[in-house]
Structures are given as C-alpha cells and as structure tokens.
C-alpha cells in the first residue's frame, strides 16, 4: 500500500498555489520552425528543454503530447523521459498526454509505462481513451491509485468529430459521455479534496449536456488556437468550474524561444483562468 499523497490532493494544491493552468508541450513542426529550430532531434530537444526550464517552476501542470516525441523514435522518447523527470523535479505536475486505451495485458503494459513508480516515463497522470469499454481501463485505474497518480479519461472532447461517439445513446437513453462521467464519479466517491480520476471536457463545447460534478478534475483543452477562451469556462462547466484545469498550448508556446516571454505568457494565462474559475493564482 503506497503512502504517496493522492494525485487529486497534489493537483488541488498546485492549482491553488500556482494558478489553474496546464501548458501543453507540443513541439510540432510548424512551431519548431517559428522558433527558428529544425524539425529534427536537436530542435526537439532544444524546444523541450526551453519550455521545461522556463515553466516547470511556475505552472501547475505541464502536458507533453507524446506523439510529437514518438515521431523521432527512440531518441525522441529519450527527450520525453528527460522532460518528464526534469519537470517533476522542478515542482510541476506532469500529465502525459498519451490517450492510451486497450484491453487486458496490453492495457496493463501501457499502465506500467506511465504509472509504475520507477518507470522512465512515470508521470503524475495520463490521458486515457475509454472506447474499448470503461472497464478495460481498470489496470491503469488501479495502478494509478496504488502509486498516487491520476488519469484523465476522454469524455466530451474539443474536436468536432467527437459527438458522433460521445453523444450517442444506449438503450437506457444515456449518452456515452454521461456513462463515462458516471463511472468516474463512482471512482472518486468520498475522496477529499479532489478525486484522482478526471475527465477531458473541451472548453469549445456549446454546452456540456451532462453532469460534470464528478468530484475530480476536468481537463479543458480547446482554449486559444481551437477558438475557446477563459470567458467560455463558466458557461461550459457551471457548478464544476472550481475543478477545471484549463489547457493552453500554442497560446503560450508561440511566445518562445525567449524564456522570459514564455513565463510572462503563462502568467497572463493563469491570471485569466483564475478570474473565471475562482481558483488561486
């Protein structure tokens, strides 16, 4: 039995002390070019190191998107490993944006990669896809709880294709998204101050159409380049607003490679999010 402080408690404290902001680390080719870097392993490493050194001591959460590292093969994964470790050492929580979802021993292996203590990619939380059935996520949920980590399960995502699956209804009339949120609510029952199991709910939604009070965090992508803003958060999240972790990527990263400009942009975003969510900054 682990004695590690649960992810929900650590996230609540980080959001209150540093402001409710998650900054994505998304080193896609166009952004590397904007920074004057090559679309190669050297550019990836310089970009990632700059973001971590500038922000890990200040923001609540950093969220590296694994795809942008995986495309460089083993050397890219090595950069990701260092980024995760360095960010956590500097005090930021790390959400590995991997969107894994599988069954049985394969799901357990994914869990071991990101949620087992001592693993090179061990993170504070991961993103997971429930579309092979919520129950298939059990190995990751159990290992996360054992190690004081968390998960964010896709529920109502910011991409326009999402509703064809997430708004679909079962025989009882419940949407897929509502069923996912109900399961997360049950997982988090009795946890204080916040459960470790969260949902991904896009800030771009016209309306949630579901009960978002799951006693867990709500990771809210879609702010900035996808068209949403901090002002949209009260409309989308309603009474669950205090548990929202807004995610911004290009809105901060486009100010690089100057470290001071990156920090200033992150501070502006955190202040804006705090104004609309009521969390501390």
UniProtKB/TrEMBL annotation:
Residue numbers annotated as active site: 99
Residues that span the membrane, as ranges: none
InterPro entries for this protein: Aldolase_TIM, OMPdecase_AS, OMPdecase_type-2, OMPdeCOase_dom, RibuloseP-bd_barrel
Key words of the record: Decarboxylase, Lyase, Pyrimidine biosynthesis
Keyword 4Fe-4S among record annotations: no
tRNA processing found in the keyword field: no
Occurrences of domain Orotidine 5'-phosphate decarboxylase (ranges): 20-265
EC number(s) reported in the record: 4.1.1.23
Top EC class, one word: lyase
GO MF, one annotated term: orotidine-5'-phosphate decarboxylase activity
Gene3D superfamilies, A to Z: Aldolase class I
Highest rank taxon of the organism: Bacteria
Reaction(s) this enzyme catalyzes, per UniProt: orotidine 5'-phosphate + H(+) = UMP + CO2
Pfam families registered for this protein in UniProt: OMPdecase
Pathway where it operates: Pyrimidine metabolism; UMP biosynthesis via de novo pathway; UMP from orotate: step 2/2
Similarity comment: Belongs to the OMP decarboxylase family. Type 2 subfamily.
NCBIfam families assigned to the protein according to its UniProt record, in alphabetical order: pyrF_sub2
Name used for this protein in its record: Orotidine 5'-phosphate decarboxylase
Gene for this chain: pyrF
């Amino acid at each position: 039995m682990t004695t590690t402080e649960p992810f929900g408690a650590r996230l609540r404290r980080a959001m209150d002390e540093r402001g409710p902001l998650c900054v994505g680390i998304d080193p896609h080719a166009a952004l590397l070019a904007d920074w004057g870097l090559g679309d190669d392993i050297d550019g990836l490493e310089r970009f990632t190191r700059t973001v971590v050194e500038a922000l890990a001591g200040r923001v609540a959460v950093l969220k590296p998107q694994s795809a942008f590292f995986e495309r460089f093969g083993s050397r890219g994964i090595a950069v990701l490993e260092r980024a995760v470790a360095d960010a956590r050492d500097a005090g930021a929580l790390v959400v590995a944006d991997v969107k894994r979802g599988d069954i049985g021993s394969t799901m357990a292996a994914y869990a071991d990669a990101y949620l087992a203590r001592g693993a090179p990619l061990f993170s504070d939380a991961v993103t997971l896809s429930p579309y092979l059935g919520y129950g298939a996520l059990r190995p990751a949920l159990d290992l996360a709880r054992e190690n004081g980590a968390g998960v964010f399960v896709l529920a109502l995502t910011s991409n326009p294709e999402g509703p064809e699956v997430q708004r679909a209804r079962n025989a009882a009339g419940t949407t897929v998204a509502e069923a996912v949120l109900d399961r997360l609510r049950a997982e988090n029952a009795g946890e204080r101050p916040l459960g470790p199991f969260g949902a991904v709910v896009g800030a771009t939604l016209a309306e949630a159409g579901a009960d978002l009070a799951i006693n867990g965090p709500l990771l809210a992508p879609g702010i900035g380049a996808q068209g949403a803003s901090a002002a949209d958060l009260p409309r989308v999240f309603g009474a669950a607003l205090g548990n929202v972790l807004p995610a911004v990527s290009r809105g901060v990263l486009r100010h690089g490679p100057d470290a001071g400009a990156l920090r200033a942009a992150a501070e502006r975003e955190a202040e804006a999010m705090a104004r609309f969510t009521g969390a501390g900054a």
